[in-house]
UniProtKB/TrEMBL annotation:
<dbReference type="GO" id="GO:0004376">
    <property type="term" value="F:GPI mannosyltransferase activity"/>
</dbReference>
<dbReference type="GO" id="GO:0031501">
    <property type="term" value="C:mannosyltransferase complex"/>
</dbReference>
<feature type="transmembrane region" description="Helical">
    <location>
        <begin position="464"/>
        <end position="481"/>
    </location>
</feature>
<keyword id="KW-0256">Endoplasmic reticulum</keyword>
<dbReference type="GO" id="GO:0005789">
    <property type="term" value="C:endoplasmic reticulum membrane"/>
</dbReference>
<keyword id="KW-0337">GPI-anchor biosynthesis</keyword>
<keyword id="KW-0812">Transmembrane</keyword>
<dbReference type="Pfam" id="PF04188">
    <property type="entry name" value="Mannosyl_trans2"/>
</dbReference>
<feature type="transmembrane region" description="Helical">
    <location>
        <begin position="128"/>
        <end position="154"/>
    </location>
</feature>
<feature type="transmembrane region" description="Helical">
    <location>
        <begin position="192"/>
        <end position="217"/>
    </location>
</feature>
<feature type="transmembrane region" description="Helical">
    <location>
        <begin position="488"/>
        <end position="511"/>
    </location>
</feature>
<feature type="transmembrane region" description="Helical">
    <location>
        <begin position="436"/>
        <end position="458"/>
    </location>
</feature>
<dbReference type="GO" id="GO:0000009">
    <property type="term" value="F:alpha-1,6-mannosyltransferase activity"/>
</dbReference>
<keyword id="KW-0472">Membrane</keyword>
<feature type="transmembrane region" description="Helical">
    <location>
        <begin position="166"/>
        <end position="186"/>
    </location>
</feature>
<comment type="pathway">
    <text>Glycolipid biosynthesis; glycosylphosphatidylinositol-anchor biosynthesis.</text>
</comment>
<feature type="transmembrane region" description="Helical">
    <location>
        <begin position="20"/>
        <end position="41"/>
    </location>
</feature>
Length: 514
């Protein structure tokens, strides 16, 4: 038995390292493909290299003249590779928020680019030029963030699925996901994935403070990061339900709801603060504009106005015949999202349609991080009422002992993962994709998929949904279904390979992709 334990203890770290190596391999592959396509095909639009002077004369680090750069050709090659939204991020890092439409791009990625370019990569400025160093900094940040995001996804998947094989497959699928080109370009997807996966991992691990910090950072990388507040709302609702119906403490339920509301608000703070910053700069006369229409609104929300006014984003506004090719481009990812949600609903219809409120006490205790009060919260129950009887105290202590024992068994199972048939014997509750821990992730995916299909530019769904863990969990189980698993595996990998090739070809040469 000790030999089996020692083998199991080394298995998870080895797979974690394998995920890290796979992430590196995927980034190297993307780099090779980008260089290959750029050398083979002329870009559709060559305006990306244009670099007009900043509007403000207070720019603290202007770009050196081309004549003073030691290796101008390398610098030009880096600058020419920056296309699509990368041009906006680079311009913001160089000049700040000059134009109204630039406020559609949240600040943490440009801030990181600027900091790295002025510290670690500062010696390269005389060699390739400041703008090229900014671009190089962005590429470095994105690719490194992607490596750690993949590892965080693996660790999160192990805890959620209790199946190291499925967790490993899901993480490898993420390393070679269909939106891979955006995780190696000057986009904020990699930082968002890192903060999102990291925050969810710490939330599941019981470190709420770190979870709030990381998920708040995800909301400063991409606007959909504010949806991560939904996990705290889900947790608060279920813990309040537990406090009322199992502890009989209404006051404690109120306390839990207030705590959940504060945690959720913290995730919104970076996004809200940025909207206030935009209002101050644009509406209060600090930018060369007339009073903009959104400034006069009762709730002057800059981001919604920008998406609607400049990009035509709105409910059903993209449902036009000419957009049919874009709907076809998004069909694979939307289909995978739909099938993953429907399959979970088929596996656990009662908890899916009841939002998790109709499940057994045993399963709730198994997934206590979302569904029941934690040990520290339960310890407050004894202090909550001065008239608590000795019997109630003894029951509370018994609950604590059972919770601690369950926690120790669960921790040991992570260190020493068991085969699925042994897991099902020792853990009568359902694990894998049918676990009740998957429910909040599926609900989150459902909301995002509906938004992508009904509101957004639908072709963006490929990268918009690429950071949703249930897609990879569901796909990893499809690949091992007896009889049809191999065919599903071929189909999934063919889809990923096709979009990686297509994306690296079109996107890197400034052709429309997603």
């Amino acid at each position: 038995m000790s030999n089996d334990s020692s083998i199991s203890e080394t298995k998870e770290p080895e797979r974690s390292h394998s995920v890290f190596r796979a992430a590196i391999a995927s980034r190297v592959l993307l780099f090779v493909l980008i260089v290959f396509w750029r050398s083979l095909i002329s870009p559709y639009d060559t305006s990306a290299s244009l670099n007009p002077n900043c509007l403000s004369s207070n720019t603290t680090h202007p770009s050196p003249a081309v004549e003073s750069v030691l290796w101008p050709r390398i610098g030009s090659a880096i600058e020419d590779s920056i296309v699509w939204d990368g041009v906006y991020f680079l311009r913001i890092a160089l000049c700040g928020y000059e134009y109204e439409q630039t406020y559609a791009f949240l600040p943490i990625f440009p801030i990181c680019i600027r900091l790295l370019s002025r510290t670690v990569f500062a010696p390269l400025i005389p060699v390739i030029g400041y703008r090229a160093v900014l671009g190089l900094s962005g590429y470095f940040i994105n690719n490194v963030a992607f490596l750690f995001a993949a590892v965080y996804l693996y660790r999160l998947s192990v805890i959620i699925l209790k199946d190291t094989g499925a967790a490993f497959r899901a993480s490898i699928l993420f390393c070679f996901n269909p939106a891979s080109i955006f995780y190696s370009s000057l986009y904020s997807e990699s930082l968002y994935a890192l903060f999102s996966f990291g925050g969810l991992y710490h939330l599941i691990s019981g470190s709420n403070t770190m979870a709030v910090i990381l998920l708040a950072l995800s909301a400063s990388a991409r606007s959909n990061g504010v949806l991560n507040a939904g996990y705290f709302c889900f947790q608060a609702m279920h813990q309040a339900h537990d406090a009322i119906f199992h502890e009989g403490r209404v006051g404690l339920a109120v306390q839990v709801l207030i705590s959940g509301a504060v945690q959720s608000l913290c995730i919104f703070v970076p996004f809200i603060a940025f909207q206030v910053y935009g209002y101050y700069n644009i509406c209060l006369g600090h930018m060369p504009y007339e009073m903009r229409p959104w400034c006069k609104a009762r709730l002057p929300l800059l981001y919604n106005y920008l998406q609607s006014h400049y990009w035509g984003v709105g409910f059903l506004r993209y449902f036009q015949l000419k957009q049919l090719p874009n709907f076809l481009l998004a069909t694979p990812i939307l289909s995978l999202a739909l099938f993953s949600i429907v399959r979970y609903a088929e596996l656990r219809p009662e908890i899916f349609f009841s939002l998790g409120f109709r499940i057994s006490r045993k399963e709730k205790d198994f997934a206590s991080v979302f569904y029941t009060l934690g040990t520290d919260q339960r310890s407050k129950v004894a202090q909550f009422s001065e008239n608590s009887s000795h019997k109630a105290l003894r029951e509370d202590q018994a609950i604590r002992r059972r919770k601690q024992k369950s926690k120790e068994e669960f921790t040991d199972s992570l260190k020493n993962p068991l085969p699925l048939e042994k897991e099902s014997f020792l853990f009568p509750v359902k694990s894998g994709y049918s676990s009740i821990l998957v429910l909040p992730f599926v609900l989150h995916l459902g909301f995002m998929a509906a938004t992508a299909f009904l509101v957004m530019h639908v072709q963006v769904a490929t990268r918009f949904l690429s950071s949703s863990p249930p897609l990879y969990w569901f796909a990893s189980y499809l690949m091992v279904i007896p009889g049809t698993g191999r065919r599903w595996g071929y189909l999934i990998w063919a889809y990923s390979a096709a979009y990686i090739l297509l994306g690296s070809l079109l996107f890197s040469n400034f052709y429309p992709f997603t």
